[in-house]
Write a structure and sequence with these properties.
two-stranded antiparallel sheet, 132 residues, 36% helix, Alpha-Beta Plaits, four-stranded antiparallel beta sheet, alpha+beta
């Protein structure tokens, strides 16, 4: 895969991250249309903040993202917006989520820079999550 760089007004960068987070209590609630709506919301947030979702997979009980983020904006801020907005909108659209969970997401998440592993290997890992 060819290495491509992005830029903003004052930096040129290539900052890709593998991010994983789970619903509270690792409940299997990302089903019955919640997964499809979640994908839409995450894509909207990424577009709004000039980030790129390279790969995304929604499992019943966790979310995998391969995302490129402007380092001046930061991965922590992007994940905070993604989790916050998706929690609010999903709980509005799917009221049954409110009865199952006090909050949709856990406070924590996993993030790893993707630099050591070839990007294609991480992308393939995320694509194959449902086939494990």
């Amino acid at each position: 895969m060819e290495r491509k760089f992005k830029s903003n007004r004052n930096i040129v960068y290539s900052c890709k991250y593998h991010v994983v987070w789970c619903p509270k209590y690792r409940r299997k609630v990302l089903i019955h249309g919640v997964d499809a709506k979640l994908k839409e919301i995450l894509q909207q947030v990424a577009n709004e903040f000039q980030s790129e979702i390279i790969e995304m997979e929604i499992m019943d009980d966790h979310v995998h993202l391969l995302v490129e983020v402007d380092p001046q904006f930061g991965i922590a801020k992007l994940v905070r917006y993604m989790k916050g907005r998706s929690s609010r909108l999903l709980r509005q659209e799917f009221p049954w989520l409110k009865s199952r969970l006090p909050t949709l997401w856990t406070n924590s998440y996993f993030v790893s820079t993707v630099g050591g592993a070839p990007l294609t290997a991480v992308k393939q890992y995320i694509e194959n999550q449902k086939n494990v």
